[in-house]
Write a structure and sequence with these properties.
Elements (H helix, E strand, L loop, with lengths): L13 E2 L2 H7 L8 E4 L3 E7 L5 E7 L5 H15 L8 E14 L6 E14 L19 H21 L6 E2 L8 E3 L5 E3 L6 E2 L6 E2 L12 H6 L1 E2 L1 H17 L3 H5 L4 H17 L6 H21 L10 H20 L4 E2 L3 E4 L3 E5 L5 E9 L4 E7 L5 E4 L2 E4 L3 E9 L10 E14 L10 H9 L5 E11 L2
Parallel strand pairs: 1-5, 15-22
Antiparallel strand pairs: 2-3, 3-4, 4-6, 5-6, 7-10, 8-9, 11-12, 13-14, 14-16, 16-20, 17-19, 17-21, 18-20, 21-22
Helix pairs in contact: 3-5, 3-9, 5-8, 7-8, 8-9
Keywords: ATP-binding, Kinase, Nucleotide-binding, Serine/threonine-protein kinase, Transferase
Family: Belongs to the protein kinase superfamily.
Protein name: Protein kinase domain-containing protein
Length: 462
């Protein structure tokens, strides 16, 4: 089993030398560069222990960068939450460098300040790369998971971290939200964030941030309050649900017309998804309506009419309550937190053609659940064959049956079985960690690993 290094939330950030960071990023080469911003550039790095990191190297701007480094470092040290990026290392050192003086042309020893912040590296990158309309591959359950995670993180900044000292992010946008392997969002880039001792409105003399996501009172009057982030959140939710142009579209029509339009588009897509039952379509549409109505409240021009993040969370928690209520009435088969539908693997069989069977997995628990599948590799291939599902998420498994020369009788059990195992795991376990050996070790340690055998059924096409 590949043992990819994992950071624990209790670990203190490592004090790394500039030499360490040069070695991990191939001397900050272009091939390792993954992004840039107003205060620095971000590189993908690999430490000696095999851990991947994202290195944010701040520009050499005396004074400003000192303040910027201290602000972001202090903010990151204060917060620990599953939906907020975790600081795993830093570099803050001054070194001597032999450079040519522009004025005299002579070479002199100059002091160079190196500042860098190091974070966990997420292969999927930022949310802005996944914004697309409702007809794309990103299904509703996955989009809802992203919306809920962003709201959870923002609620922590405003209320959970310290009710008397809320943190306002002030630059919340899709580019500052990273996605891990399971598409769980992580709020990042706290360079503009401010720690306030009160929740009253504050006035600033300069405008910073990304214009498309800042509220009107900040542009016109330089006002900063907790409703600043709420406005940004509303735009992000609209874009997650409707695509990158969704917010501009909603400004061109009355709110109710926009709500009806979004619901109608999602209704068509959900009904076209063969794996959704009519009840699941109806339930999902209620969730769509709740989210879009809440988002429109967040982007109200008058900030007094915008909800607080707590009120947003109350709306989302109602969705969770309704979902749990439906689950308690479900008669589907459950593994360890995992629901499998249907309880057999059915293939539409046609002679000399590949057949395809689909299983729907739903994690209806508050835990991360690892799953693994097994079938005769000479006859079947499965995608994905294993994975980790976040709490309250859905995933589809597509199995391909290789073409066969002779067709069996219709609707018969072909005597093959499709084995599925599952177990609750801790956050941080990845698909590459899931092996037969992992499940054996969990059982040996007294853990619970469940498995089910699904019969394989051929359905001959007419």
């Amino acid at each position: 089993m590949e043992n990819k290094p994992q950071y624990r939330s209790s670990e203190m950030p490592k004090d790394l030398t500039f030499q360490n960071l040069e070695a991990s990023t191939d001397k900050f080469s272009e091939k390792c560069k993954v992004g840039s911003g107003g205060y620095g550039e971000v590189y993908r790095g690999l430490l000696d222990n095999g851990a991947e990191i994202a290195v944010k190297k701040l520009y050499h701007t005396p004074g400003l960068i000192d303040a910027q480094f201290k602000k972001e470092f202090d903010n990151l040290m204060r917060v620990q939450h599953p939906n907020i990026i975790r600081l795993v290392g830093y570099c803050n050192e001054t070194r001597k460098k032999y450079v040519k003086c522009d004025e005299t042309g002579e070479y002199v020893w100059a002091s160079v300040e190196e500042r860098a912040l190091c974070f966990e590296f997420f292969q999927r990158g930022s949310l802005d790369k996944y914004l697309c309309d409702e007809s794309s591959w990103l299904d509703w359950h996955k989009r809802y998971q992203i919306i809920k995670g962003i709201c959870d993180g923002l609620n922590y900044l405003h209320n959970g971290h310290s009710s008397s000292n809320p943190i306002y992010h002030l630059d919340l946008k899709p580019a500052n939200i990273l996605l891990d392997e399971n598409m769980m969002p992580k709020i990042t880039d706290f360079g503009l964030a401010r720690l306030f001792g009160t929740t009253k409105t504050h006035i600033t003399t300069t405008i910073r941030g990304t214009f498309a996501y800042v509220p009107p009172e900040y542009i016109g009057k330089r006002q900063i309050s907790k409703k600043f982030d709420i406005f940004s959140l509303g735009i992000i939710i609209i874009q997650i649900m409707t695509g990158p142009l969704g917010y501009s579209e909603c400004g061109e029509m009355p709110p109710q017309e926009f709500i009806d339009l979004v619901q109608e588009k999602w209704k068509k897509r959900l009904q076209a998804t063969a794996t959704y039952t009519s009840q699941e379509v109806a339930d999902s549409l209620e969730e769509v309506k709740t989210c879009i109505v809440t988002a429109l409240r967040c982007v109200e021009t008058d900030r007094a009419n915008r909800p607080t993040i707590k009120e947003v969370m109350d709306q989302l928690n109602e969705i969770e309550t309704m979902r749990r209520s439906r689950i308690s009435q479900s008669s589907e088969y459950k593994l360890e937190g995992l629901v499998i539908d249907p309880l057999e693997l059915r293939f539409a069989f046609d002679t000399n053609k590949d057949g395809y069977g689909i299983l729907q997995l739903t994690n209806k628990s508050d835990q991360f659940v690892a799953f693994s599948t097994k079938a005769d590799k000479s006859r079947y291939s499965t995608q994905p064959g294993k994975g980790v599902m976040p709490p309250w998420s859905k995933r589809y498994i597509v199995t391909t049956m290789k073409a066969q020369e002779l067709a069996p009788p219709p609707d018969v059990d072909c005597s093959d079985v499709f084995l599925m195992q599952s177990a609750s795991v801790t956050e941080g376990v990845t698909s590459s960690d899931i092996t037969e050996d992992l499940f054996k070790k969990m059982v040996a340690a007294g853990g619970k690993v469940e498995e089910v055998k699904l019969p394989v059924v051929y359905v001959v096409l007419p």
